[in-house]
Amino acid sequence: MIEAIDLSVKIGKKQILKNLNFVIHEREKIAIIGPNGAGKTTLMRVLGGMLPYEGKLIINGKEMSEYRRQDLAKLISYVPQIFYTPYTFTVEEFVKMGKYISIRNWWNAEGIDRYLDEVGILNLKARYVNTISGGELQKVLIARALAQNPRIIMLDEPTSHLDPKAVFELNRTIINLEKTVISVVHDINAAFNLYSKIMIMANGQLYGIFSGKSKEFVDAISRIYQIEYEILDGKFIVPKGPYFQ
Amino acid sequence: MKPKFLILFSLLILLILNILFSISIGPVRIPFDSVTSTIFYYFMGDPYNRIYMLIIFYIRMPRVFLAVLIGAVLAISGLITQTIFRNPLGDPYLTGIASGAALGASIGFLISPFVVEPLAFAFAMLAVFITFIISRVDGEFSPEIMILAGIAVSFLFSALASYLIYLKEVNLRGVLFWLLGGLYGANWNDVFYLTIASLILFPLILYFVPEFDLMLMGDEQAKSMGVDTKRVKLITLLSSSIVTSFAVSMVGIIGFIGLVSPHIGRKIIGESHRFLLPASILIGANLLLASDTIARSNPGGEIPVGIITSFVGAPLLIYLLIRRRFFDRGN
After folding, report:
1. Is there a domain that residue A118 lies in?
2. Which of A48, A52, A131 sits opposite B224 (nearest CB)?
């Protein structure tokens, strides 16, 4: 589905990503994790076709740079990290915009209720997007990405700013999507428990790719963050010993 | 009829009444009903008031239609700029058109009155092209850079224009009157050429109505949803710049219409461009026509319409700001 060979990205003269090599298969759930400034968001943007790159990046058998925007949007949808909209569109209109790629006059699109239902916000349909909460807006954005009906959904820290209930619901929604999902995640426990593969980024390089729920992943993040972590009950990753001494 | 169509329909009716009213106003007052009946009889081949017809057809109508057209042009360009730059302060002159036209006109006044219009147009387009070239990042216009580039280019061209006016013996009153904008020179030729330009360029802009709403989400989001943002920006900004330069070269720099019309539109009809675009066009046409009627019926003689539009536009903008529904609509 996605194959990167020596993928590098420069912004201006600064090398942001250096020689990344990885393969992502259909319907895998990938978490990208790493310290601030590791290049996670840049990786997301280049996978979304927003940045020029060096090396090879093959999506569905074709080089990324050769895609037309319309064709790429049928394959990949990118849900951004921080999104605030001051505009007075209803949730319904907003989600219908996702249909643009199949129906240019998207306001005539029908059958978007199922996407709202899928992320549990059917009750918000008539609300204005500038009057709902951050967590609700995040779900609206995911519903819009679903309406686009891509094969790959990319999410940049989807659960930041959300309360525990919203995080739980959103994670459940994401994991049950019958699509390839690539998420930037800061919560190591969520990455460990929910995703099938975890890519650890550090200093613009790929530190390694690990399976979910593996001890190797916990060892790797211990080295990256220089905190010794252990696994409790096979479920929780916690720092060893008492928190503060 | 749906409420939004009803609003558009009302704006259209208002424009028609506005046109008839404006035609009836002037040194020779033609009663409201005589305006319609004279035109009606003329086209029916019945006997009509010849003097009224001459005044209506050769003096008032070209001016009224030019005001309507230019109001529409400024409103559509203002809306496009606000949408593409996602900046509520966007106006049609953001890309340096006004200063370019001012420099061209100043040079024109030095040479001959006949070259004022073509030179104003040429220099307005020159300013636009310089701004466009500076703003290209990775082959695509960057809104952030374009705003700054537009300001820089505006200052440069203004400085050159001021230098010319200061140093050479330019017809100062002529330049000033031109800079403030006025429709006093309106004739059927202007109306004809501007209509042709609008008929060619407006469809290019209206074609992208489905994309405009998506562009409001930001370039990356629009791209992610499949919008060819590069193409939308290039075609719409170029079209609106050409038609605005053309309008400015005819009547000078008329402020505030392009800025205020889309804001009024948003307030009464909402954000969706499929309603907002026609609404802004009708509002711009109504506003400029009303302002021009006031400008030319000033008892002490005609005043530049730019003064009136600023007098009307600035308080409107302040009102919108005070109402706080400018940035945080709905909250």
Report:
1. no
2. A48
Domain membership of residue B95 (yes or no) is: yes
pLDDT the model gives residue A58: 95
ipTM score: 0.88
**Greater confidence, B262 or B141?**
B262
Question: Has residue A86 been placed in a domain?
Answer: no
Report how many domains make up chain A.
Answer: 1
Calpha distance B223→A213 (Å, rounded): 35
CATH number for the domain that contains residue A9: 3.40.50.300
The secondary structure element, H or E, covering residue A63 is strand A62-63
B328 has pLDDT over 60: no
In a domain, B328, yes or no: no
CA distance B330 to A62: 44
| Residue B331 lies inside a defined structural domain of this protein | no
Residue B330 scores a pLDDT above 50 = no
Mean pLDDT of all residues in B267-287: 94
| Residue-number span of the structural domain to which B17 is assigned | 3-322
What is the distance between the alpha carbons of residues A90 and A126, in angstroms, rounded to a whole number? 6
Cα angle: B3, vertex B7, B8; to 5 degrees: 120
The answer as to whether B329 is a domain residue is no
Q: What is the DSSP string of B141-159?
A: E-HHHHHHHHHHHHHHHHH
Span A205-244, pLDDT tens digits:
999 999 988 999 999 999 998 888 988 888 888 888 777 6
List residues in chain A touching B: CB distance below 8 A.
Answer: 45, 48-50, 52, 68-70, 72-74, 76-78, 80, 83, 85-89, 93, 97-98, 100-101, 104-107, 128, 130-131, 144, 148
Shortest CB distance from A97 goes to which of B213, B218, B331?
B213
List, as ranges, residues 150-209 from B with C-beta within 8 Å of A: none
User: pLDDT at residue A85 above 80?
Assistant: no
